[in-house]
Structure formats: structure tokens, C-alpha cells
Amino acid sequence: MGKVIMYSSVSVDGFVADENDQPGPLFDWLTSGDVALDESGVLKVSRASYDYIRPYWDQIGVTVVGRHVFDLTDGWDGKPPGGMDHLVVVTHRPAPDGWDPDAPFHFVDGIEAAVAKAQELAGDRLVEVAAGDVGGQVLAAGLVDEVRMDVVPVIFGAGKRYFGSVHAQHLLEDPDVVLQSDRVLHLRYQVRH
């Protein structure tokens, strides 16, 4: 089975969105470079960010998100973001009325079941878990192997926390990647088990 990685862009003070669920400048680094990150041509990053992010994206088989993010994005119009094959949505509610049953989205109740479904779908590819409440719950359950952060030089002061509502201590190894790029610092930590 593929590794489970918790990931997001994050403010210096640890937030993935402001109090109104807005990312503010957290994703500006994805459009401020000169190297196309995908075929759309919209995402352009520095060469250093491309060399770090593109191989990672190519390894992701499934992304796990919470229902809140799914609703905020209107389900990405039934197409998983970033070219993922599947997206697993952690929710206690069924798919929205009128949802296309053939869309590669899987609505699963509970984080353990969501990670199991994601690993089944991903095979030996990576399972990415969006940071925030769901990511924090997956970390607290001991199911995260690695934490990746794209730290953006902004301070929100308040908002949606990277680790959600995690209140217990969790030890990470020393960072095995610390990569400075344009308007972002890429960090990668293995989780101690």
C-alpha cells in the first residue's frame, strides 16, 4: 500500500484558510513562476518548486478531503483536482442530490474507512489527505506516514488550522526536505510511529 501523506499550503502561523474559509495568498506561489506545473498553463511555479511538486503530484493516486471542502468547491464539478483518479470524501451525509454516480468520488463515513478505501483505490501510489480537520483526525488516529507543508510567508492570526483540532502531541522526525523557493518554503517530515 502507498504511503499516507498529509499536505497543504499553510501560513507561517499554521492556518490553511482564514476565518471565512478563504485561502488568501496561500496559493499565490502556484501562479507566480515561469514553469508550467500542469497542462492547463494556469499553474506556473519556480523551477525549484516544479522539481519538488511535480514528482509528488505524479505519485498521488487518491486524495482524501472532508465534506466541508467538497461543498466549498462544489465538488470540483465532478472532476478530482490535480488530475487525480479518485477522490474520497469523509462525510456522514450521502452524495448531493443530482450527483453523477459515475464521477470518481467516493463518499465514506469515518476517517478509518476513508483511508482504507483510498488505499484500496490507490494501490501502491500515494494517498494524500488534505490538511485541516480531516487531516488532523487522520494524524491523531496514527494513519499518517508523512507531513508535507508549503509554508507561505503570510500571517493570518486566526482561521482554519493546518492540524485541525488536534490537541495531543505528535512527534515528527527532523525534516528530510527543506526547500526554499519563490514565496514558499517546502517542508517534508516523516511521522514517528
UniProtKB/TrEMBL annotation:
<dbReference type="InterPro" id="IPR024072">
    <property type="entry name" value="DHFR-like_dom_sf"/>
</dbReference>
<protein>
    <submittedName>
        <fullName>Dihydrofolate reductase</fullName>
    </submittedName>
</protein>
<dbReference type="InterPro" id="IPR002734">
    <property type="entry name" value="RibDG_C"/>
</dbReference>
<dbReference type="GO" id="GO:0008703">
    <property type="term" value="F:5-amino-6-(5-phosphoribosylamino)uracil reductase activity"/>
</dbReference>
<dbReference type="GO" id="GO:0009231">
    <property type="term" value="P:riboflavin biosynthetic process"/>
</dbReference>
<feature type="domain" description="Bacterial bifunctional deaminase-reductase C-terminal">
    <location>
        <begin position="3"/>
        <end position="170"/>
    </location>
</feature>
<dbReference type="Pfam" id="PF01872">
    <property type="entry name" value="RibD_C"/>
</dbReference>
